[in-house]
């Protein structure tokens, strides 16, 4: 932590800052410039933010050196983490491909989607049972009935499952039926929910909030890990910008950036990032080229009839093509797409 003193800071003010820091056990180093004094304080940032230094007379600004997230930081582990969802490993050489419809709409719809994405080589089946929709009049999900259908699809296809939870009640239910829970963009800063998910111990897919900085996203992950749950997978899903030609703006640079800052695996969701079916495959390919550990792709047996996010959903045939393309891109960057396409 660096404390930059004001140009006009007098000896009394400098002494007061020094005493405050020493009182809390910080080691002090003075750096005297031509006009200004800078104080280097070696200690714990968490504590320094509660010292009230910013408002002490003579202090111009405080510059943190350490990152505010600790447990999820790259340096805390020194290597990438692998997150296990039953027999699926996320963050290894093999890409994790999560696919399925935005929402579970019916048994037939989900089972059809599950069979097709499994055939194409997806490793994880998705489907929302609790949908946080912008409009209260839009389809809100089948709730527990949807979770039961997900569990049935998992049993039939052998795919592990992920579903979004929106509160404690949906979390409790999801824990009974699925293998991984998703905290969506809208809930990324629901700190109470993050703690609950952390305590559950279940693998978590943590979407980036659509107006969240990378630091806020990593702090959200820190909430989960600080409760003892290290099984966190990050998912970049586009952020809000002035551009409205696409649903969101895919922040692809966040992938290599976050992989440098954190040891957690990073996936990309090109479906919500673009909102446009024909942009999903190009952005999916780009994400893998940029070093993503996998993708989350919305696939619907009949996108035109989808109750949620049809315009961004791939048909099973589109998804087959995407998977074939991903195999080539993955090979070019030294990765593999798991679950080689099966024909049954
Ligand atoms: C979803 O994955 O269905 C979803 C709602 O995503 P997000 O939270 O990223 O909008
Ligand atoms: Mn969706």
Explain how this protein is built.
- The protein is of the alpha/beta class and 344 residues long.
- It has 2 domains: 2-64, Alpha-Beta Plaits (2-Layer Sandwich), CATH 3.30.70.1140; 83-337, Aldolase class I (TIM Barrel, Alpha-Beta Barrel).
- It contains 12 helices and 15 strands.
- It has helices at 11-23, 45-48, 74-77, 107-120, 144-157, 168-177, 191-200, 214-226, 254-261, 270-274, 277-289, 316-332, and strands spanning 2-5, 27-32, 37-42, 59-63, 83-85, 88-90, 94-100, 124-126, 160-165, 180-183, 204-207, 232-236, 266-268, 294-298, 336-337.
- The strands form 3 sheets. Strands 7, 8, 9, 10, 11, 12, 13, 14 and 15 form a 9-stranded parallel beta sheet that branches.
- β9 (160-165), α6 (168-177) and β10 form a beta-alpha-beta unit.
- α4 (107-120) packs parallel to α12, α7 (191-200) packs across α8 (214-226) and α11 (277-289) packs parallel to α12 (316-332).
- It is elongated.
- Phosphoenolpyruvate is lined by residues 102, 128, 164, 184-186, 207, 237, 272.
- Manganese (II) ion is lined by residues 102, 272, 298, 308-309.
Would you summarize the structure shown here?
The protein has 344 residues and is an alpha/beta fold. The chain folds into two domains: 63 residues, Alpha-Beta Plaits (2-Layer Sandwich); 255 residues, TIM Barrel (Alpha-Beta Barrel), CATH 3.20.20. It contains twelve helices and 15 strands.
Q: What's the shape?
A: elongated
Q: How many DSSP helices?
A: 12
Radius of gyration: 23 Å
Overall number of structural domains: 2
Bound molecules: phosphoenolpyruvate, manganese (II) ion
- CATH topology value of the largest domain: TIM Barrel
Enumerate the spans where pLDDT stays under 50 for 5 or more consecutive residues: none
Described by strand count, sense and barrel closure, the largest sheet is: 9 strands, parallel
Mean of residue pLDDT values = 95
């Amino acid at each position: 932590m660096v404390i930059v003193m004001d140009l006009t800071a007098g000896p009394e003010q400098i002494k007061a800052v020094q005493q405050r820091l020493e009182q809390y056990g910080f080691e002090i180093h003075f750096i005297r410039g031509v006009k200004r004094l800078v104080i280097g304080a070696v200690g714990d940032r968490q504590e320094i933010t509660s010292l009230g230094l910013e408002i002490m007379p003579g202090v111009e600004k405080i510059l943190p050196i350490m990152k505010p997230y600790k447990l999820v930081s790259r340096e805390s582990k020194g290597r990438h983490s692998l997150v296990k969802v039953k027999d699926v490993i996320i963050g290894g050489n093999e890409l994790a491909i999560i696919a399925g419809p935005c929402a579970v709409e019916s048994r037939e719809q989900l089972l059809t989607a599950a069979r097709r994405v499994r055939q194409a080589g997806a490793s994880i089946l998705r489907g929302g049972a609790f949908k946080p929709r912008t409009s209260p009049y839009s389809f809100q999900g089948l709730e527990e009935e949807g979770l039961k259908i997900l569990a049935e699809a998992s049993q039939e296809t052998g795919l592990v499952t992920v579903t979004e939870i929106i509160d404690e009640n949906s979390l409790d239910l999801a824990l009974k039926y699925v293998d991984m829970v998703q905290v969506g963009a809208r809930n990324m800063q629901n700190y109470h929910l993050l703690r609950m998910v952390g305590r559950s111990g279940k693998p978590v897919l943590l979407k980036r909030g659509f107006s969240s900085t990378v630091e806020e996203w990593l702090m959200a992950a820190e909430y989960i890990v600080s409760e003892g749950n290290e099984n966190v997978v990050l998912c970049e899903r586009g952020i809000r910008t002035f551009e409205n030609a696409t649903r969101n703006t895919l922040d692809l640079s966040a992938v290599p950036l976050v992989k440098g800052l954190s040891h957690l695996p990073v996936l990309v969701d090109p479906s919500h990032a673009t909102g446009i079916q024909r942009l999903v495959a190009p952005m999916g390919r780009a994400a893998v080229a940029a070093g993503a550990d996998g993708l989350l792709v919305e696939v619907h047996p009949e996108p035109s009839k989808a109750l949620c996010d049809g315009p961004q959903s791939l048909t099973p045939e589109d998804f087959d093509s995407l998977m074939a393309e991903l195999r080539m891109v993955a090979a070019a960057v030294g990765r593999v797409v798991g679950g080689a396409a099966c024909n049954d």
